[in-house]
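Pipeline run #58 for the internal structure catalog. This entry was flagged by the ingest filter as a single-chain record with no existing model, so it goes straight to prediction. Upstream metadata was stripped on purpose; only the residue string is passed forward. Reviewer on rotation: M.T. Logging verbosity set to normal.
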Amino acid sequence: MLPKVIVHNSISIDGSLINFEVNMPLHYRIAGNFKADMHLVGSNTAKNGVDLFLKEIPKETQDDFKKPNKEGILWAIPDTAGKMKGLLHILRQSEYCKDVIVLISEKTSKEYISYLKERNYSYHIVGDKKCDLKKALKLLFEKYNSKTILTDTGSILSNLLIKEGLVSEISLLIHPVVVGKKAYNMFTYIDENLKLELTKKESFENGYVWNLYRT
């Protein structure tokens, strides 16, 4: 069995993911309505978020070497290249993250695996060179009972999921702004036309529109 996967993103009218101010409260209010069992986060998005919002990386504490006991939602990160080495404790410390599950491959470095083991992160090998997303989703469903998985990551992971036919719904919060030349299109890696069925539409104050599509 595979979980229901929902791609949720805030975009501009011209489909950009960046270079405009996102209405974060509304974005996460809509995301919360899906009542997801797990968040799937791309390693590029996670690393870029750390680089963007933190001027200095906080040092690890003793608590960062053990699994936390707190409320929240599990985050799964495909990270075969070990891009989050030295940074995972930032996510583990977040009030919104219960803990981090790392998805790696047979080619992931021994150094990164040692880093994960020393800090008691759950990790799973789900591919040879790269992460096999279908295999990963099957594992998350069966081992962690994740029946609904939400990803509001960047374009790379969401586009891969869409191209492999693993996405059930696409949720778009459209912002009343045109980015223009600096736009980075959400669907930039999709090669073919993707037919969608609009299942829900809602308008909000100040020109925001939310559309929910079934793939």
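catalog note: Residues 42-144 form a domain with the Rossmann fold fold (CATH 3.40.50).
catalog note: Helices lie at 24-33, 43-53, 88-92, 110-118, 133-144, 155-163.
status: ready for reviewer M.T.
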